[in-house]
Amino acid sequence: MKFDCYGQAFTTEAELCDMLYQNPNLSLARFYVEDPGRFNRACMETYSELPLLEGYTPFDVSVEEFDQQLQSHWRMPAEYKTLNIAEHVLGLCSTDAELQRVGQELLLYQERDLFDLLRYLKYFVDTMRKNGVVWGLGRGSSTASYVLYLLGVHKIDSLYYDLPIEEFLK
After folding, report:
1. What is the DSSP string of the chain?
2. ∠ CA 148-110-125, rounded to 5°
3. Confidence class of residue 140 from pLDDT cuts 50, 70 and 90?
4. 5-21: per-residue pLDDT in tens?
5. Residue 117: left (phi > 0), alpha (psi -120 to 50), or beta?
6. What pLDDT is attached to residue 71?
7. Measured between alpha carbons, how far is 7 from 3 in angstroms, rounded to an integer?
8. What does the pLDDT read at residue 50?
9. In terms of C-beta density within 10 A (0-12 exposed, 13-18 middle, 19 or more buried), how is residue 157 classed?
10. How far apart are CA 40 and CA 74, in angstroms?
């Protein structure tokens, strides 16, 4: 399987059919094949209950526009979509230093139009906790974000380790 600059997975019809045989409940929403019409016809003949591949996202858009299109289709409950994420994260702070750092980070997240991402991450972490899923301590530049630490995305306290937010939002 190959990935393009948009993060889209491309595969052959044969590879995708093999994956479907191994996991009939596989979500096809993010797979692209050379001839989706031919693939859809084969699916209808073989598995009438499988979802069909929807239309392609045009490739004449920037990566940023593409990301925005994908973010508009995230599936999460309405309570998360309407969550005032800034208020929620600020409410998790217990010291002035934490409030100052979170305020600084939230301004940077807002400038980059990433509040929907923060809402989704809150939903994702809550879902993993609810289902007993274990995830890593954290890795890479994301550990420089104190907001992500408060949301539970990682377990590295960037204030304690004096990690500058610029390491994350380069």
Report:
1. -EE-TT--EE--HHHHHHHHHH-TT---TTEE-S-HHHHHHHHHHH-TTSPPP-PPPPTTS-HHHHHHHHHTT----HHHHT--HHHHHHHT--SHHHHHHHHHHHHHHHHTT-HHHHHHHHHHHHHHHHTT----S--GGGGG-HHHHHHTS----TTTTT--GGGT--
2. 30
3. confident
4. 666 666 776 677 677 66
5. alpha
6. 72
7. 5
8. 44
9. middle
10. 24
85, burial (CB in 10 Å: exposed 0-12, middle 13-18, buried 19+)? buried
Side-by-side strand order, sheet with 9-10 = 2-3, 9-10, 31-32
In angstroms, how far is the first alpha carbon of the chain from the final one?
29
Structure tokens at 4: 């393009």
Residue 33 to residues 10, 22, 98, 115, 148: CA-CA distances in angstroms?
Answer: 6, 18, 47, 32, 35
Q: Where are the domains of the chain?
A: 2-61, 78-167
CB 45 within 8 A of CB 57: no
Does the predicted model carry a pTM greater than 0.90?
A: no
